[in-house]
Fold this sequence. Notes:
The chain is 30% helix and 29% strand. By secondary structure, the chain is an alpha/beta fold. Strands 1, 2, 3, 4, 5, 6, 7, 8, 9 and 10 form a ten-stranded mixed β-sheet that branches. The longest helix is centred in the middle third of the chain and has 18 residues. The model has no long low-confidence stretch (mean pLDDT 89).
Amino acid sequence: MSLLQTIESGRNQKPRRVMLYGVHGIGKSTFGAMAPQPVFIQTEDGLGNLDAARFPLAESFDDVMAAVMALYSEAHDFQTVVVDSADWLEQLIWKEVIRRRPTTDRGRDITSIEDYGFAKGYTYALEPWREVLDGLNALRNERGMMVILIAHAKIERFENPETDAYDRYSPRLNKHASALIQEWCDEVLFATYKVHTKQTEEGFDKTRTRGIGTGDRIIRTTERPAHMAKNRMSLPEEMPLDFRVYAEHLGQTA
């Protein structure tokens, strides 16, 4: 068979790889629990009020990889794996880096990811991150499982080369790991509350701008100055924070 005969056409039918990040307590785990037949790999103890299948709380990087391997090698009916959360997983990865590299090149003992100096520790952390993503890829490609990564949000200073620097929301991860995961994911979705602003006159030609929250929980799907996001589908820029609404779009491209 020639190489040209191996060319494929049509849309990719593989399950999605999604990172959902957002502000505290908005319902990110609930979004994951609404996915088809989910099972949680929990790295933080925050699922107490959620009726969902879960592995025991992971206390090490090996615990996380053991859960991934069990889903890969053993018989089960789960269709979605939810990692909750990626930023707590990062803490376990940093501990794993220190376990693998307990001393610096000069023999000094390591007690923190910062001790390697010059951001080396965060670069070393990309190796176990890739091991996790490779394992999740195997679940997606060979076991047909959707992957959802849950993460908290942080406000960071973004140095835009085309404008002055400004603040924006991003996943609460080291920038190297965040870039790796964002590239790997099909969708990076930002969960937040819908907010309107209202200006009121205060006299003496002064105005005051107030934020007014409606309580509506929404997903932002496209990058804007206020937040980082992306999608590989033609998703609306704003959707309700509801997996069922997101799933309506999967049949168009999945």
